[in-house]
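Morning!

This is the sequence you dropped in the shared folder:
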Amino acid sequence: MAFDAETRLGADLGGGAREGPSLPREKLLSVTEVAQWLDVSRAWVYEHSNGRRRPYLPSVKLGRSVRFRPEDVEAFILECERFGSIKAA
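The structure's back. Tokens below.
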């Protein structure tokens, strides 16, 4: 029996598919894309995403790659607006 997406999402073995959880298909952003969006260097993004600098920029670690959810970047911008401007520590 092959292990496919239907099996992972909970399809029954009788052939009828159940409605499984809908996974978001939103594109994760790269370090370069976030740096361009915020108009900062890639190094700045890395430093703020790994906790070395404040404010902390939430990220998703995928092996050696770091990716960002667009809604996390937007929340980060709003949080920085509350306290003045984005400042590198």
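Headline: The chain has one domain: 27-89.

More detail when I'm at my desk.
O.
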